[in-house]
Structures are given as C-alpha cells and as structure tokens.
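Below is a complete specimen:
___
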Amino acid sequence: MFEVLYVTFWSHVKHGFFLIRYTLKSKFEKRAGWATLLLMSQTLLVKNCRPWGKASQDILVKDGLINSITPAGSTAVNAGQIIDAENQLIFPGLVNAHAHIDKNLIGQPWHRNELPGATIRDLVDYERKIQLEKGLSTRVQSQKDVEASIAAGTTHIRTHIDIDPEIGLTGFEGVLGTKAAFEDRLTMQTVAFPQRGMLIYPGTIELLEEALKMGADAIGGLDPSTVDRDPAQHINVVFDMAVKHGVEVDIHLHEPGMLGAFSVELIIERTKALGMQGLVTISHVFCLGMIDEAYLDRLIEQLLENDISIMSLGSGRGEFPPLKKLADAGIRLCTGTDGVRDTWGPYNYVDILERVKLMGYRSGFRRDEDVEMLLNVATYGGAAVMKDGSYGLEVGKAADFVIVPGEAPTQAVVELKPRSYVIKRGRVVAKDGELMAG
C-alpha cells in the first residue's frame, strides 16, 4: 500500500541538530528513506572553497569531523547538506584567545564615556561604577558578546572574568551560564581574573579559589608590581593556585620597560621551577617592545625554553611586542579582542579579522605574507594556546571553519565583509553575518 508521509524531525548529530523534512511514497520507501536520512544527516559537503586562498577544494564532513579534502568537483556524495562556497576563502574558525565577555555594553543605549583618568585604577573603578549604575547582567551581556562573535566567525573564546569581594562570583556564574547555553556552537575557556588586584583586596584569593573549584580553566594575574606592589608574592600565589587546581596561568602584564621585563623574568623563573612549560601565557606584555634588542633576545630565548605563550592585541598608544620578531623566533602567539564596547573605550568590537587588520596597521605590515602571519596567530596560534588538538583544516580535525568572500586572505582582512558561513563541528551556526537560530 502506497502513502505519502511528510516527516519532520530533529536529529542529534555530534553536538549539533539538523531539521530535516522528507517525503516518503511507500512503506518500503519509508524504511529505505529513514536509513538514507540518518546517513545524510551526518554529512556536510562544502564545495568549491579555497583554503587560505589556495586551489579550490571540496571538504566533506562526517559526524562533525573533516572526512576528506579533495580537488573541487571530485567528491560525489549524497550529503545531508551541501554548501557551494563559489570559490570563496575558507579558514579554520577564528580564535579570540583574550576576551572579557562579562562586561561589554553591546545592545545597551550608547554610553557617553566620561573617564576621570587613564590609569588602570581609574579605568577599573569607573567601569565598576557604570556597571552598578546600569544594573547590568553578566549573563545577558556575555551572551550578547558570544552571539555577535559567532556571527563574525569566532569558534573559540578564552575569556577573563572579574572576581573580587564586591561582586563575588556573580560574573563568573553568569559567564558559565552562557558557556553552557552555547556549548554546541562555541568552544570557551574561562580565566578567574583579579581585575581590581589580588593581595591588596582581602578576600579575593579565596574567591579565585572558589572559581577554580567551579571549573575555571586558568588563573589570571595582574601587574604584580604596579597593582599588588609585591611581584614575588603575587606570582607565587598565582602559580601555587595553578598547581593546586591543575589549571593554566594567564597573566595580564601592562607594566612598562624594565619593570615589566623584571616581571617577565619572575614568571619565567616560576614556570621553570614548577615544570609548567606550555601552561603559561603572558598577555599584553608591552615591555617587550620597550627594551633594547640584546635584553629582548635573552628574554625570547628564555620564553622559548619554557614554552611560554605571548598574547598581544597590538593595542595602546605606545609600544607593543614586536610580533614578527617573536613569530620568526618561534614564540607561540595569540590574539583577541580584549574588552569590546565597554567603559574603557568605544573602539573594540568582536570581529577577530578586524583585530588582525589593526595589528597589521600598527605593525606597519604591507606584505601579504606578514598579514597572513597575523591571521595564523588569530587562528592556529590561539587554538594552540587553548590546547585544542582537534583544530585545523586537515582530515580528522573538527569541522570548525569560516567561509569569507575574497580572492586572498589579506583581502578578507582588509575588506571585513560579512562572513558567508560559520560552521562549528559540522553545523552551520551563522550565515551572511547573522547568527542562526539555536
């Protein structure tokens, strides 16, 4: 007996869901059709895409992993979803390895910035004042940041979250809520961060410990000399917590010149003494762009010896690390957005390609190969810092990638066109610059 059935169902496939409508014309075809559907729902074929601007390829995805990469037109498969990239660029997912998604103003009425000063303390105190006056929800604001980030091609975020006795763990709990809500669309790491200081603010250490017990992936630190005014003790406490809880270290270091370089040496010493090679990142570290070449070369040698990563945004009014020199030496580099649309300033946004463009501009880079080096920092570099061994445009790796209009990688960085597709674990999560429904 023949019949027509219209079947609509949700199929869970490796962290993602596909809504499929299918027509069956007989009971026999119904049985065969279900089998075909189940096979198709696990496959995605991206046709005619150009990895890093090279020759056009077809990328076949099965169960959220890259199954094959073959010359365009050579893959014939009955895939559940087919995307024709029309010879657009494809990159692995963009990695924001340094964010503060807990305190943006995205979606809020425009904030007229009236900062009273430019010191870190001025910035932090003003930020807290405005947050309390506006009654901002960390859960709501972190979600707004994540939604905009995914739409712009970000598949990984490492975010620092303010923790101190005034707000307790409220911010951390809010970000954990966002992390859980987007776990199938974004890889997120959290850093317990003492933005207002640690030793100078009694009760902060205990709260940081609680955040680590709740699942923070790393412990942060902040300007050991200029904020806590006890560099050795500050660094000892941070590293002791990291060892105790088995997490990584990611220290904000804004300290200038020789003072900052002294802090770098202390961090190197603790890394070596505790055998934490490969588990430490120093963020901002402006001092590397302020010291003489001979001293810088010695520090680079020690950073390499202890496998310490450097995060730079290329930001600030003054010097910043010489990114090409560090990359050529083999230092693991990553980048991120830092805070976006917050009380510190109106300029930053979630687009990692925009960050690459700004770093290239500030570095004076003109050659495509140098801009592509920065793009590598914003992809493979960040993924390496986040220890994601499944990352990359290779067979067997997770199908996390972004499809962008353009003939060459540098063109994509310069023109900043909306991302055509963002794919996470084989699932389309954003299209034409817009987040897809969860």
User: Anything to note?
Assistant: The domain at 43-92+396-435 is CATH 2.30.40.10 (Urease, subunit C; domain 1). The two ends are 39 Å apart (CA to CA). Confidence is low (pLDDT under 50) at residues 1-40. The CA atoms of residues 46 and 423 lie 10 Å apart.
